[in-house]
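Dear H.,

Thanks for agreeing to be a second pair of eyes. The structure we're designing against is below in token form, covering all 160 positions.
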């Protein structure tokens, strides 16, 4: 007689597949932005050295480095679903900064596609902070892997 065990502490397994695809798309957008920053790091440095950012002017290179690599690593982690809640939470201040500082120069209207994309990604990051990474993620794999052998029902996931 087989008994199916549902883990009540893993609400992310009840997410629809489209939410997982949306998580991957958001991760790709953030990763591509990191690649763009990597290719043109002087663009971020000159933006940070803008007279309006006098507090950040002395550390422009360090801030550009931080933003670039945080986008690269954060995008990758969101794509694979590793530490999704934490990485999404840490990406939110960067997106708010992009909306306020970068997009304000290009115009704060919805005719600016960069602003609309930044706001959409910000909303989706907040969603992933709340919902987690979903069933098809590294988080779920490691959660199932560490419970395999200790709790009923987890080992069957790997052999079906």
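And this is the sequence the design step returned. I haven't edited it by hand at all.
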């Amino acid at each position: 007689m087989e008994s199916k065990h549902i883990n009540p502490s893993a609400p992310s397994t009840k997410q629809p597949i489209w939410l997982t695809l949306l998580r991957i798309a958001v991760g790709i957008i953030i990763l591509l932005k990191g690649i763009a920053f990597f290719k043109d790091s002087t663009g971020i440095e000159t933006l940070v050295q803008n007279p309006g950012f006098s507090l950040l002017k002395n550390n422009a290179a360090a801030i550009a480095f931080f933003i670039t690599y945080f986008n690269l690593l954060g995008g990758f982690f969101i794509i694979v679903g590793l530490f999704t809640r934490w990485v999404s939470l840490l990406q939110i201040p960067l997106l708010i900064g992009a909306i306020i500082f970068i997009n304000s120069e290009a115009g704060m209207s919805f005719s600016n596609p960069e602003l609309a994309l930044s706001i959409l990604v910000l909303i989706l990051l907040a969603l992933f902070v709340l919902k987690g990474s979903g069933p098809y993620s590294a988080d779920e794999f490691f959660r199932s892997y560490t419970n395999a052998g200790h709790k009923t029902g987890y080992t069957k996931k790997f052999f079906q």
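Two observations from my side: DSSP finds seven helices and no strands in the chain. Residues 1-12 have pLDDT under 50 and may be disordered.

Warmly,
E.
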